[in-house]
Amino acid sequence: MDFSWLSDPYLILAAWAGVLSAVLVVLLAVLILSLRAATRRTEARWRAFVEQWRPLLLAAVTAEETVSESSFPPLRRRDRRHYLRLWLYLHESLRGDAGQRLNEAAMAVQAPHWATRLLERGSDTDRVLAALALGRLQWLPAWPQLLQATRSRDALLSVNAARALVQLDPLEGARQLLPLLLGRTDWDVSRVGDFLVGARHAFWLLLAKILPEAPPAHAARGLQLAGALRLELPDSSLRPMLGPRQPAAVICAALPLVARRDMAAAITPLLEHPSWRVREAAAAAMARIVMADDLPLLERRLEDDRFEVRLAAARGLSSLPFMDDARLQALQASSTAGGAVLRQVIAERAEP
Amino acid sequence: MTGRTLVDLVTWFVLVYFVLLNLGYLSLNLLALGSLRRDIHRKIVDELPQPFTGLEPAISLLVPAYNEEATIAASLRSMLQLAYPEFEIVVINDGSRDGTLKVLIEQFDLVLFPEAVNPRLPTQTVRGVWRSRSHPNLRVIDKENGGKADSLNAGINVARHPLFCGVDADSLLARDSLRRVVRPFLRDPRMVASGGTVRVANGCEVQAGLLTRVGLPRNPWALFQVVEYLRAFLFGRLGWSEIGGMLIISGAFGLFRTDVVVDAGGYRPKTIGEDMELVVRLHRMLRERGVDYRIEFVPDPVCWTEVPEDRRTLANQRIRWQRGLAESLSGHWRLMFSRNGGAPGWLAFPFMVLFEWLGPIVELGGYVFMAVAFVSGLVSWQAFTVFLFLAIGLGILLSASGLLLEEIAFHVYPKRRHLLVLAVVVVMENFGYRQLNSWWRLVGLYRWAAQKESKWGAMKRRGLGGP
Q1: Is B361 in the same domain as B441?
Q2: What is the ipTM of this complex?
Q3: N or C: which end of chain A has fewer CB within 10 A?
Q4: Domain assignment of residue A150, yes or no
Q5: Cβ separation of B189 and A92 shorter than 8 Å?
Q6: B65, B170 in Cβ contact below 8 A?
Q7: Contact: A89, B12; criterion CB under 8 Å
Q8: Mind listing the pLDDT tens digit of every residue in chain B (467 residues)?
Q9: Which residue of A8, A23, A32 is the best one to mutate when testing the B interface, meaning the one whose CB has the most B CBs within 10 A?
Q10: CB-CB: which of B114, B382, B396 is closest to A3?
Q11: Do A35 and B183 touch (CB under 8 A)?
Q12: A191 within a domain of the structure (yes/no)
């Protein structure tokens, strides 16, 4: 077969693609090696830093007197990230007065000032660390920068900046952040629940106020957070959430918060709701507030089309203090659809 | 058309196919790189102690077991140690013919319990549900044999929690695996499924069901698979996840919203690739209904699995995987180029059809054709050399980029020796192993076309450490 490199441009192209891939392989190898070397250097520096600073910070935690600038060696600029990393780890691990002691140690190395600058101009990692530290330090002058950071598209940075603001001033933080707390679904709900513990009263106050007018998605998230914080919302806020026009997601989020007998009238119609999830949550809620007169409402759910609702009703009935085994067994004998779930809950009651 | 023109056409078709295939993978690689770089600062926060808040959704761990008497107790002991606020373990004994149930009864103090089973998915007959008296969050379903998909459906029927996680009985899970894999659900209410990264456990040190030291296997088959897993998970799935087109969540470790899976009809019994089939079906169903949803991949190494160390077992596994892929794709043609298909229908599905489903035919066909054409003098030695040079060069480039992603984000293999060994494997796998793999996949395609009956995949195991 006749062949000439010049006469076959596709072959030349393929050959160059091969050469390019070979060159890229070499470049990748160099990159991997340099990354490995850089990682080793960073790890070595981190280990050396921890070796030097961990005892100093722990000594500051246990010191009798207030620490000052002279208690620590100069902190090099390149070690600031390491400092925040170690300091935050200790802060998150220790309890009680230790936090205050660590804050004094951070003040002694001017941490609030350079952390604020890192929050404004640092790398992604630096900014997150700085936001976390400024919250722990309760450094109010950084409020504008933190507030700005809560609007970042980076969910990790923004949620941690929100946490810092709540730590700085629970009431004002919750007030300014409420739309974001309810609206930013990219914020890890578990993390939000965690830092709202420190602002639960402020959150309760604000949530109770805005719930009746909140859009359904915000209302559902607010109720979910209220449930995690074990907040008892006033009836005037909770009752509209149980209305027949509310989406099932909102009703399902509101039902676990029902704790008072006077909400029974709002729950009763929900036992017949078209959504089985609502019926299931309503059966569980009803069981918490039920009186002997209302038992037929729950017993009727034992014949529900959905297994989940029957099980919730059976569990609810079984949890009632005035419901004994004999009565449950009688129900089991007379029930058609609910026999199996009643047999299960009777056996569960018998377990040690 | 003359013979010469035909040869030219086929030559260029094969070359263009190889280039397109590798360009596709390189694009995925770049997407994965972007994702890993963006999330690199998350690691710093992950290091900090983080309390559970009660907002983490409870999880049902479903563990299908068939003839697992040797390993099931150790696996369960490690799963019972997972760090997560609320989870239950449901083992499904799929009519094992060995002493799996007996071991479970003895080791975990099981008693028969009159559990009401929610018959939301049809399954083989459930013979009984057992509860552990020593571990209140452990239950065992004993049922007639029906395959892995049927077992998972039986598990879903008794699962109590809003999320379930299918786990292979021989998987080793990191203690914080549930916390990591649930994260996408915490930061996006649209999430319906998330998949975790599976790594090769051969060569690692395992004590009491927990991985204590990461290492590389000495067995060459297992070594090749280390690089393969890096490629498949780190840029394959992560890249697709970036654009919402991930079609596979490994059956070894995947988290799903229970109600959505029930709504989709659960796992399809009698399929081999039940994990991929479910994900493709979820995409198709949710897109047809116009639901706004997300399926995401978690790149952190959360699950470690023992891979085959002999050619025969590996061949069987790959044949099964290819059959599973063919079943999953052929059952959902309507997703491809559908009106609401989005990234799964317009990018991922056609890519899978072109390069994963038909890949072995073109790859092996290409090698055979070029060799035959070269021997018969129809293709010049220059063209033959260029073909080999390009195919192998791109293959090495892809594997090397998987290694780069690993080095950037996880650094799981810390020793210099590890890096050196992996570099050698990255090159060597292109001289025989990949071609062998293509052959096994071709056999898988043939068996899929011949519609041979599917069974549980038996795997010869050496075991991963003492109890």
Answers
A1: yes
A2: 0.89
A3: C
A4: yes
A5: no
A6: no
A7: no
A8: 666 777 778 877 877 887 788 889 889 999 999 998 888 878 888 888 888 888 899 999 999 999 999 889 988 998 999 999 999 999 999 999 999 999 999 999 999 999 999 999 999 999 999 999 999 999 999 999 999 999 999 999 999 999 999 999 888 898 999 999 999 999 999 999 999 899 999 999 988 777 888 999 999 999 999 999 998 888 889 999 999 999 999 988 999 999 999 999 999 998 888 999 999 999 999 999 999 999 999 998 789 998 999 999 999 999 999 999 999 999 999 999 999 999 999 999 999 999 999 999 998 888 888 888 888 887 788 888 888 888 889 889 989 998 999 888 888 888 889 999 999 999 999 999 999 999 999 999 999 998 765 555 555 666 655 44
A9: A32
A10: B382
A11: no
A12: no
A2: how many CB neighbours lie within 10 A of its CB?
A: 6
The residue range of the domain holding A155 is 56-62+82-168
Give me the domain span that covers residue B416. Answer: 3-26+351-450
Q: Are strands B205-207 and B253-257 parallel, antiparallel or unpaired?
A: unpaired
| CA atoms within 13 Å, Cβ hemisphere of A126 | 16
DSSP H or E stretch at residue B250: none
Q: Is residue A325 part of a domain?
A: yes
- Angle A170-183/A216-228 helices, nearest 10 degrees? 130
Closest-CA residue in chain A for B377? A1
Is the CB of residue B329 less than 8 Å from the CB of residue B353?
yes
For residue B277, give the nearest of B27, B454, B20 by alpha carbon.
B454
Tally of structural domains, chain A: 2
- Specify the number of domains making up chain B: 2
CA distance to B111, B135, B160, B430, per residue, from B142 (Å)? 12, 18, 17, 45
Claim to verify: residue A245 and residue A328 sit in the same structural domain: yes
CATH number at residue B78: 3.90.550.10
d(CA B401, CA A29): 9
Residue B214 lies in a domain: yes
Q: Do A239 and A343 reside in the same domain of the chain?
A: yes
Q: Do A228 and B55 touch (CB under 8 A)?
A: yes
Q: Do B101 and B199 fall into the same domain? A: yes
What is chain A's length?
352
Distance CA B346, CA B280 (A): 13
A65–chain B nearest CA distance, Å: 28
Give the CATH number, domain containing residue A306.
1.25.10.10
Phi, psi of A345 (to 5 degrees): -70, -30
Residues 6+ apart with CB under 8 A from A174: A166, A181, A196, A199, A202, A203, A206
Alpha-carbon torsion B124, B128, B132, B135, what sign? positive
